Holliday junction branch migration complex subunit RuvA
Amino acid sequence: MIAFVRGEVAAVTLSSAVLEVGGVGLELMCTPGTLATLRVGREARLPTSMVVREDSLTIFGFLDDDEKSIFEIVQTASGVGPKVAQAIVAVMSPDDVRRAIAAEDVKALTRVPGIGQKGAQRIILELKDRIGPPVGSMPTGPAAPVVEPWREQVQQGLVGLGWSAKESEKAVEAVADQAGDAPDVGALLRAALRTLSRA
């Protein structure tokens, strides 16, 4: 198991980053929020989780150990694979996930692309006793309402790819009507990039 990766950032794409470690480029699948913190040519250290399948070996990179922990715990729920787990940590902070499960807030979980009402209920039922309380300073209770979290994710992703905050904000506004009830952060990021390339 690869617990973390430290090395120079060789490349950043829409969904992944390549870190050079001992002359080898390791591709880490990351959320837009994580990618936004990386700069090509600078050293980075990312906690990682490795998912091994018969036909693939994928490494996921995270902002911190808490995000990695949530990614791994939610996959122990039936029907939650690495893609849905990554979508959860992309849309919600670790404590938002804990609060939503503790408060049985189905609506908060269904904001994540790929999670329907039944899936959210199953996650709550299976993880309620294992997810633990929020570790931050906010009190336990119903999940705090999140104001369109996709906006911040897309904007952070664009800034991480080299656009200015002002340009990124305009691009986010330009694609806002495509968000719908279950925003796909990756698709919105690509749409925003198309908007910027036409400008």
Observations:
- The longest helix spans residues 185-198.
- The domain at 65-127 is CATH 1.10.150.20 (DNA polymerase; domain 1).
- The radius of gyration is 17 Å.
